[in-house]
Here is the input.
Amino acid sequence: MSRGAKYEGDVMKIGTLYDIEELRRLGGIVDYVVGTPLTKVYCLAEHPDPKQQHYLNLYKMGEGPLYSFFLPYHLVHFEVPNAIARVALLRDSVARPLGGPVVEVCAVAKRDLKAGEVLDDYGMYMTYGEAVNADEMSHSRYLPEGLVEGCKLKRDIIKDAVLAYADVELPQGRIADQLRAQQYRHFRGEIWLEERIKGRN
Here is the structure.
């Protein structure tokens, strides 16, 4: 992943950022960029059929080999309820299950943070989220962006540094932390977070 590389060009040409042979070898990737005008979510795909390539180019999708499909918005408060409704009411698969988390969101300092400060809610004034692969998230024991609220800092953290569990004291008795620990045990066979919670920080 580019890990949020800055890109301010045409979203229809965003495929030029990538080595297509590497993408094929990997079987695809999850990625994001920062700064793309009018684009929040995008997907790149190729089509091997020369006839389809002709029509994709004819209808202004570019010359390929990667074609860009995108949405100009990312409205979580609309998209999450709709996704839940699709699963619950229509038995629709929103995303193909892969047997466990692949990409997660770690917490990153929005500004210089001081020891003793209590973190506010995710995406507010103290932290922002950054996509990271699940192996790195677990290996480095990063703090999830969704669980920052109420955590008390044990040490100073500089702006744009990733926060780890070792950097904070967790709020007492939080169910979300227990569920997170169960997730690590279930998908990765890891118990370090369970032990951390039992030992209370």
